[in-house]
Design a protein that fits this description.
With 213 residues, this protein is an all-beta fold. 0% of the residues lie in helices and 51% in strands. Strand 9 and strand 10 form a beta hairpin. The protein has two domains: 98 residues; 110 residues, 7 Propeller (Methylamine Dehydrogenase, Chain H), CATH 2.130.10. The protein is built from no helices and 18 strands. Strands 1-2-3-4 form a four-stranded antiparallel sheet, with no helix packed on it. 29% of the residues are buried. It comes from Haptolina brevifila. This is Guanine nucleotide-binding protein subunit beta-like protein. Keywords: Repeat, WD repeat.
């Protein structure tokens, strides 16, 4: 409310890539560009756990926290689901469950979770998108954006997926079935890449906003 600096968290050895907030335990999850993952208690400001990659194949590229299931999804070339154990367990903050051994052969651009369908959708740089059932860890199906993938986002209902490509193309999907609903491209020839996407709901109108380069 005042804008005052409360605390500086120190521990990462390089730049940060992403942050996620765990409302279930009031903790902050930070991901470094080196793939190091840290969990911080926002009451005591203590670092609860540090997870470092043992190889390039284990280097985490993105994280997503679902407040509906109190679980964290991390991506390398595979997906891992991290769930909190019971509060009586104090030694381990997170316990990992591998969702699937294969699926992507290229670095992941992002991962999104739809709690309505209990599905995770992941996309890699080649444009491949995979849909996973988080209850079984199985891959439901996969589909292709059509060019190198640079951005992805769900709408507020968790039912529609929008993807952006390096060629400026934007695709709208019913991702629970893999059906492509629409493809649009920018009329501005100087826009060559979709750098970011966001869903905006204004009254009864729904918009996707894209940022280009």
């Amino acid at each position: 409310e005042t804008g005052d600096l409360l605390k500086v968290f120190e521990g990462h050895r390089g730049l940060l890539r992403q942050l996620a907030y765990d409302s279930h335990s009031n903790s902050l999850i930070s991901l470094g560009v080196d793939g190091e993952l840290r969990s911080w208690n926002l009451t005591s400001y203590a670092c609860l756990q540090t997870i470092r990659p043992t190889s390039n194949a284990d280097k985490i590229s993105s994280v997503y926290f679902s407040p509906h299931t109190s679980s964290l999804v991390t991506t390398t070339r595979r997906l891992a689901l991290w769930q909190h154990p019971r509060k009586t367990a104090t030694d381990e903050v997170l316990s990992a469950q591998l969702l699937a051994p294969n699926g992507h052969r290229y670095p992941l651009v992002g991962v999104l979770y739809s709690y309505q369908f209990y599905l995770v959708v992941s996309g890699d740089e080649s444009g491949s998108l995979c849909v996973w059932d988080v209850r079984t860890g199985t891959q439901v199906f996969r589909f292709e954006h059509g060019s190198r993938l640079t951005s992805m986002e769900l709408d507020s209902t968790g039912r529609k997926l929008i993807t952006g490509g390096i060629d400026g193309s934007v695709c709208l999907w019913n991702f629970s079935s893999g059906e492509k609903l629409k493809t649009v491209s920018s009329s501005d020839a100087s826009v060559t890449e979709v750098a970011g996407l966001a869903h905006v709901q204004l009254a009864k109108l729904s918009y996707f906003v894209s940022v280009g380069r």
